[in-house]
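WARN  no MSA supplied for this record, continuing single-sequence
INFO  ligand: magnesium ion
INFO  echoing inputs
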Amino acid sequence: MQEDISPFLFGSGASETSFVNRDDEIRRLAVNFRSGIHTIMISPRRWGKSSLVLETARRMKTEKKIRFCFIDLFSIHSEQEFYEALCREAIKATSNKAEDWMKGGREFFKSILPRFSVGVDPQNDFSVSFDWRQAEQHRNEILQIPEDIAGKKGIRLVICIDEFQNIKSFRDSEKIEKNLRAIWQHHKSVSYCLYGSKRHMMTEIFDSPSRALYRFGDMFFLQKISNTHWEKFIVEKFLSTGKSIAHELAAKIAETMNNHSYYVQQLSHLVWMHTTKKATDETIQFALNELMNFNALFYQTIIENLSNTQINFLNAVINGVEKFTSVEAMRSFKLGTPRNVSKSRTALENADIIDVSNGKVLMLDPAFELWLRREYFRTF
Ligand SMILES: Nc1ncnc2c1ncn2[C@@H]1O[C@H](COP(=O)(O)OP(=O)(O)OP(=O)(O)O)[C@@H](O)[C@H]1O
Ligand SMILES: [Mg+2]
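INFO  complex generated
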């Protein structure tokens, strides 16, 4: 039955049919990709970076001369693994047939002998590995492989690297960054789209003048999807499944979740689940309580790992305090000394609980913020 399939999706990347707006952002990325301009994209978690890059690539599928490959540094822990993934994905993206991978791949290596293997599913299980003692002498040759392949085949290759800030966990990461810049800046057929969610780590890599990858490409701070677009999307999705919701209630769902992509989808899904025909304000309240209950244990664990001053700092944030070191704020919220304030802010930022941008402090997780207000501090 059509109406038993939820039109709202969260957790995995937004799909073709559940993708909301982002027209300007898609155009900006597409122009960069076609023109060979590198892109650096930063936004807090779950706002929609991965979905946006995937959707842009999907819409550019008909442009036969552009190919994409995707690497996620979340599951890559060393320089060697990174280069293996880079070569594997570049080879896969530039040839259509599995047989070509081995043949085609080999001809581009000059000083090193890579090992190729194909698994049970020859369309997908393809891997490249190096003897690192040999390969580390020829890093530059490895980094040049995608450019050589793309150039020879007359293809423009866009290499998308997710959670790029994880490069900082590789040994000698600053040296690696220098090397990447030295080689990548001469590429003509390959461009890089590097994105990540840890603002402070990403800006350290790409916005510090002393670093090798300083302003390496178009710096793109992805914003949230607007309330108007969410409202329209939610109303349409209810209608497409034989249910309905008033415009102002749809807008309220998005507003309650601060227009945060993941949570707007999750709350919409729960409201949809509890609606037989027409959603009401009570349905939203019910769904919101359910969402809080689902997450309560998780929020409790976060709180248990914070110190009292850090918890007090969060209280100040959700109460709209702007000058945390003012005598008044430090006293009313028991924030300790200015040094304590600065330590709390750094710790909460590193734990991805708050975002500090232009001196303004915001809670990153709108549902956690609501839970703190309602259940923990019980301010309303
Ligand atoms: N354009 C969009 N339209 C509809 N839903 C979206 C859109 N972008 C993101 N979402 C929703 O938000 C969720 C998170 O998006 P996504 O995984 O792309 O974010 P992200 O920024 O890559 O997160 P992370 O930093 O955790 O990797 C998706 O599962 C989807 O539900
Ligand atoms: Mg992502």
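The chain has three domains: 22-221, 226-301, 307-376.
INFO  checksum written, moving to next record
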